[in-house]
Write a structure and sequence with these properties.
By secondary structure, the protein is of the alpha/beta class. 62% of the residues lie in helices and 11% in strands. The chain has 2 domains: 75 residues; 160 residues, HAD superfamily/HAD-like (Rossmann fold, 3-Layer(aba) Sandwich), CATH 3.40.50.1000. The N terminus is likely disordered.
Length: 279
């Protein structure tokens, strides 16, 4: 073979090798590329599965929270409705003189919560401060009188079988604060007339009890006759008689509605807070 032929063979062989090398490179590139594609697909599969799992968990969480919120709202609504129901019932109970055994159990429970939580003490304190603020704006005179209901302070303590001793504490608190108010008004020179629903035949015993617990020096003690039954009409007649005698009723203080309604209730009436156990 000539030198030229050997040279051509070597060039052809070199080109063939280069071509195979290029082919290998291309195959390697494709391999690497294809391998990278399969890895990305696997990772994407895991990523998507993770997203689906997280989505399911989030949906479950949202549903659980929604159920919890709805449950809480239902319970809250139930408590609010019970409070409103009992407040309306309490108002009508005071207007009509309901007895403790006529009060629904749920309202008795809420009444206990009202006392135990300090609500009753706060309301009583606020009312007493309102009364004192009012009397800071008016002055006593010979023809000006203040009427105070004494049946609360003469009422016996709650029965020992009541479900909580806090009721006794609330009753004691009202008696103490009422006596403090009575003493303060008396020291300022006010003529105090005591009102009671008790019949006239119990006058002597009532006076003894009043003196025993610290009440004295009142202007008069009004008690209904044995034949009178309607206390609201009785109080109205007594107030009307006082006005006809030339007295000016400045205020009536009581925790019961029958003493605060009707004729001639004065310039300002004050209702002391009450509990179902005192109705």
């Amino acid at each position: 073979m000539s030198a030229y032929g050997h040279q051509m063979e070597r060039e052809f062989s070199g080109q063939s090798l280069l071509s195979r090398g290029d082919s290998g490179t291309e195959m390697g590139s494709r391999y690497i590329t294809e391998s990278g594609f399969y890895l990305s697909s696997f990772a994407a599969t895991i990523f998507i599965a993770g997203l689906v799992t997280i989505g399911v968990l989030l949906v479950t969480l949202v549903v659980s929270l929604a159920v919890m919120v709805q449950s809480c709202e239902s319970r809250s609504k139930g408590v609010v409705d019970s409070h409103r129901h009992c407040e309306i019932l309490a108002l009508h109970g005071e207007l009509n003189g309901f007895k403790p055994d006529e009060v629904p159990p749920v309202c008795r429970s809420l009444s206990l919560q009202y006392i135990e939580g300090g609500g009753y003490a706060r309301d009583l304190d606020f009312t007493m401060r309102m009364i004192e603020s009012f009397f800071d704006t008016v002055s006593p005179s010979n023809d000006r009188v203040v009427l105070m209901d004494i049946d609360d302070i003469l009422a016996p303590d709650p029965r020992s079988n009541e479900p909580s001793s806090c009721i006794k504490g609330a009753t004691y608190l009202k008696k103490r604060r009422t006596l403090e108010l009575y003493t303060k008004l008396q020291s300022r020179g006010w003529s105090l007339i005591l009102l009671s629903r008790k019949p006239e035949r119990q006058r002597n015993g009532t006076i003894q009890k009043l003196n025993f617990i610290g009440y004295s020096g009142w202007s008069s003690l009004m008690m209904r006759s044995d034949r009178e039954t309607e206390t609201s009409e009785y109080f109205s007649r007594q107030r009307k008689a006082l006005k006809e005698e030339g007295n000016e009723i400045i205020s009536v203080i009581s925790s019961e509605m029958d003493a605060l309604t009707g004729w001639s209730v004065g310039i300002h009436v004050f209702k002391l807070p009450n509990t179902w156990y005192e109705s």
